[in-house]
Amino acid sequence: MGTPLDSREAQAVEVLDRLYEEYPDTDISLNFSTKLELLVAVVLSAQCTDERVNDICEDLFETYRSPEDYAAASEEELADDIYGITFHNNKAGYLKGIGEILVDEHDGEVPDTMSELTDLPGVGRKTANVVLQHAHDVTEGIVVDTHVQRISRRLGLTEEERPEAIEEDLMDVVPEDDWRMFTHLFISHGRATCTARSPDCADCVLADICPSERGDSSADLASGAEW
């Protein structure tokens, strides 16, 4: 079991320092060239791998180049074009609805506020944060995906379970200048080392300050279950 620093603020800063050194080139892994492409890719990425999304979107973005294209397509056409994406039927409806709202209410542009983005079908706070950060260079919060949710609990940065509550906790202890990169660092670490089922604590740069470290700790603080 590692020994966390005396405060959550100090713990967060130390974690960031180490992860910046471990993953100096980390960034968003979705492929996009426009704000609309980013919005579509992030909506499709819910409960689906970025690799699969990138593969599907390579052809999708050749066919659908504007909000008008999504609005004009039928849900059945869209579902066929994103087949292979998790919940493709539901997400086809989201894409059509997004296209219609962008055309009718935003002059075909992707909005740049949290409230307007979360009014779009299939767009929650997590998706909106990604679009704001990477399409508009606006950082209003911390994107809490499954990696951030899991690792922040393991490290003792939060005891909350819901993404919204976790985000509030993290915003209190993570320096604001690091909010955007915090997510990418945690995603990289979650994929490489701190995996959900079998984290490689023996090769983890955070092991000595992680209260969930498997060497002596009896439980995974992410789930509360025994190792």
TrEMBL record:
EC annotation from Swiss-Prot or TrEMBL: 4.2.99.18
Binding site for [4Fe-4S] cluster: 194, 201, 204, 210
Co-factor: note: Binds 1 [4Fe-4S] cluster.
Known catalytic reactions: 2'-deoxyribonucleotide-(2'-deoxyribose 5'-phosphate)-2'-deoxyribonucleotide-DNA = a 3'-end 2'-deoxyribonucleotide-(2,3-dehydro-2,3-deoxyribose 5'-phosphate)-DNA + a 5'-end 5'-phospho-2'-deoxyribonucleoside-DNA + H(+); Hydrolyzes mismatched double-stranded DNA and polynucleotides, releasing free thymine
Coiled coil, from the record: none
InterPro entries (UniProt xref): DNA_glycosylase (IPR011257), Endonuclease3_FeS-loop_motif (IPR003651), HhH-GPD_domain (IPR003265), HhH_base_excis_C (IPR023170), HhH_motif (IPR000445), Nth (IPR005759)
GO biological-process terms attached to the record: base-excision repair, AP site formation
Naturally occurring in which organism (per UniProt): Halobaculum gomorrense
Protein name (record): Endonuclease III
Keyword Lyase among record annotations: yes
Cofactor: [4Fe-4S] cluster
